[in-house]
Amino acid sequence: MKLYPLQFEPILKERIWGGEKLKTLLHKPITSNITGESWELSTVEGDVSIVANGEWKGKSLTELINLFPDEILGTAVHARFEKQFPLLFKYLDAREDLSIQVHPNDVLAKKRHNSFGKTEMWYIMQADDNARIIVGFKENSNADAYLENLKNKTLLSILDDVQVQSGDVFFLETGTVHAIGAGLVVAEIQQTSDITYRLYDFDRVDAKGNTRELHVDLALEAINYNKVETKKSYTNNSNQSNTVVDCPYFTTNYIPLDGAISVSKSIESFTVYMCVEGSFEIEYNNSKTQYIKGDTVLIPAAMNAFILNGKASILEIYIS
């Protein structure tokens, strides 16, 4: 195949809690003032990403993987996941609180939905004053206490509430009860799954006066009722890949780019770059491509040597 950095058309999602920051901060072509998500790289059924640039423009990510599985996914990822793209990349704008929710693990998701589970991480790109997230329980709990507080509308009293700022990272293993709070823009990396169990939605109604479906019974078996540590600390060394998350599903590094660095990578996995601040370019095969804040780019696995140049904060993601 002709190798080059691949960008994709954003898949924009209206959400009851969404706003307009995906346009004002991340330059997404939204047309609604309740746009909550931009799916940057997806093979979720019904929401498959389409190439936006170069020779393969108009092809879907699924089509490219079927044509060139080793070249796109990488030899090890292809062997492990066959022709499935195992990750989903998003930007989110929370004008209001998201619902309190939980995601099932691989075993439960496979049994119930024939899907991957949904381990995920959040990188906080922008935070209003006093913005916060909900992650897990304040103390170890159990199903009975959870149900009692849910019934009494006091669930928030037993959940951990954490104030956040730009640059914070949170890693959420499956089973962690969570919610992104109002006033946050987040880069999200997760397993390819759209399985969410909604526990509580603050009694909100949509424009037609309807509440959103809750999944209280389904969630019971999925929840981890123990207190969990979710915040990740990481180094900030310029022009280096600083490890932020290293889990069985993905590795995420933080690169504070200031100038030019040469990248030499394995052909075993694809690499994805998410530009979370500033701008940079990728130089490959005597060609240069520019990227700005809010851009996401897929580096095919077979494209294993190139140059990054610019002044930017970049998330680097691959499967190890």
What does this protein look like?
With 320 residues, this protein is mostly beta strands. It is 14% helix and 40% strand. The protein is built from 7 helices and 20 strands. The strands form 5 sheets. It has a 7-stranded antiparallel beta sheet with strand order 1-2-5-12-7-10-14, with no helix packed on it. Strands 15, 16, 17, 18, 19 and 20 form a 6-stranded antiparallel beta sheet that branches. A 3-stranded antiparallel beta sheet has the order 9-8-11, with no helix packed on it.
Mean of residue pLDDT values: 96
- How many helices does DSSP assign? 7
Spatial arrangement of strands, main beta sheet: 1-2-5-12-7-10-14
**Count the strands?**
20
Helix content: 10-25%
- Radius of gyration over alpha carbons? 20 Å
Low-confidence stretches: none
> Which shape, going by the Cα principal axes?
globular
